[in-house]
Specification:
The chain is an alpha/beta fold and about 400 residues long. The protein has 16 helices and 18 strands.
Length: about 400
């Protein structure tokens, strides 16, 4: 049996709940065959697992690896020129109308080969891993033709097979109306429903189907049709909902039993009351609103107090959130949305797993869960969001193997 014991930690945060009892002191973590075997006293585990490798945590904090449940990590070039425009006050939607935004990435990605996209994405995944992300969702959505969307999803599959990060693929052909369909949006919706979704499902390239439902992009009627078509082909719904304006996205996601409704910067009071009665996870992406210069963040505290299931994710993408740092997102949740540090850590780990419908214990340190761990260079878990903008990770383990 391949086994390791993590000893000498000041705290082990299991992230099984936001109850303070999930922060344990005086315990060690035993890993066997790539899974968490036990979290118990060091003497007990030494007796159960004699003569195994030991990792001295030297007074640091052990948590699960992050589960980043919303990213757009496959793309071609960065879009720093748009950031410069926004710094001068040009709104995001105006940049999009001028040919920037998502369609700028679409034009670029269509010109690149599958192999080139693999090479471009691989170092981004390494950086995500360096920031403690051990599982991530990755969306298509910069192709917007059948073949280019399939190309993106094949890139995700290849990189998932490479590891070490586990990648969960989402089809997001409904990310934007491509330029060639600007005057014929209904034809593009039909292409999504009649050709793209069946092709993605037949190739087994995605788990989820997502739609960017926002004024000027896809409306509620279109979003419902696309998501229902995805469901009919075995693709579970997700939804970009109520990011910049309220348009009933969260309500639609809940009605369709979507895995998650993401963004929620302008979510309605009615939807906040609906979340606790549903299995749909409210996924919050504060780095996007920060980077776009928005003054109002999603109502994280209200969602938590209402009893919603909440996740935190980066929205890592080249236009509105070009950072893969989950630690920074955890800080933003605490400083801008009213989370306490434990709530933020749970949302960034177990919450992300729930938003991806992963039921193997991922995002926690409970026995049987994948042994995905972070060792932090802090003596108290509350210092993880406190030391923002600094690097406090000593090591990352994926299924019991050190990868950072």
């Amino acid at each position: 049996m391949s086994a390791t014991i993590f000893t000498g930690a000041a705290q082990v945060v299991t992230c099984e709940s936001t109850d303070p009892e999930s922060v344990k002191t005086g315990v060690a973590v035993a890993v066997a065959n790539g899974r968490i075997a036990a979290v118990a006293g060091e003497a007990e585990l030494a007796g159960r697992f004699p003569d195994v490798e030991r990792v001295d945590c030297a007074g640091g904090v052990v948590t699960p690896g992050f589960v980043d449940s919303h990213t757009h990590a496959v793309f071609g070039r960065w879009r720093a020129e748009e950031y410069a425009l926004r710094c001068r006050g040009v709104p995001y939607m105006e940049i999009a109308r001028q040919g920037g935004g998502i369609n700028a990435s679409v034009r670029d990605l269509r010109s690149r080969s599958e192999d080139e996209l693999v090479e471009l994405t691989r170092p981004r995944l390494r950086e995500m891993l360096r920031f403690g992300t051990t599982t991530a969702e990755v969306k298509s959505g910069y192709g917007l033709t059948t073949e280019d969307e399939l190309k993106m999803l094949r890139v995700i599959r290849r990189l998932n097979e490479e590891g070490p990060i586990d990648l969960v693929p989402t089809f997001l052909g409904a990310h934007e109306i491509p330029p060639e369909y600007r005057g014929h949006r209904s034809r593009y919706v039909e292409l999504l429903i009649e050709e793209m979704i069946p092709a993605v499902a037949e190739a087994g390239l995605a788990v989820f189907c997502d739609v960017f439902m926002e004024p000027g992009v896809f409306n509620p009627v279109e979003a419902r049709r696309i998501l229902e078509a995805g469901l009919a082909h075995g693709l579970w719904p997700k939804l970009h909902a109520d990011e910049l304006e309220n348009s009933g996205g969260a309500e639609l996601a809940i009605e369709l039993n979507a895995a998650s409704a993401d963004h929620l910067g302008q979510v309605s009071d009615a939807a906040i009351r609906m979340f606790p009665r549903s299995e749909t996870v409210a996924t919050l992406l504060p780095a996007t609103l920060f980077f776009l210069g928005r003054k109002q963040y999603a109502p994280g505290r209200r969602l938590l107090d209402a009893g919603a299931k909440v996740a935190l994710a980066t929205d890592f993408n080249p236009g509105s959130a070009p950072s893969p740092s989950m630690p920074l997102v955890v800080t933003m949740a605490c400083s801008q949305m009213g989370f306490d540090p434990l709530e933020a850590l749970v949302a960034a780990t177990a919450g992300g797993a729930r938003a991806l419908r992963l039921e193997d214990g991922r995002g926690t340190l409970r026995p049987g869960a994948p042994a995905d761990l972070i060792l932090w260079d802090v003596p108290d878990y509350r210092e993880i969001p406190y030391h923002f903008g600094t690097y406090r990770i000593r090591g990352v383990w994926k299924r019991g193997t050190r990868v950072v």
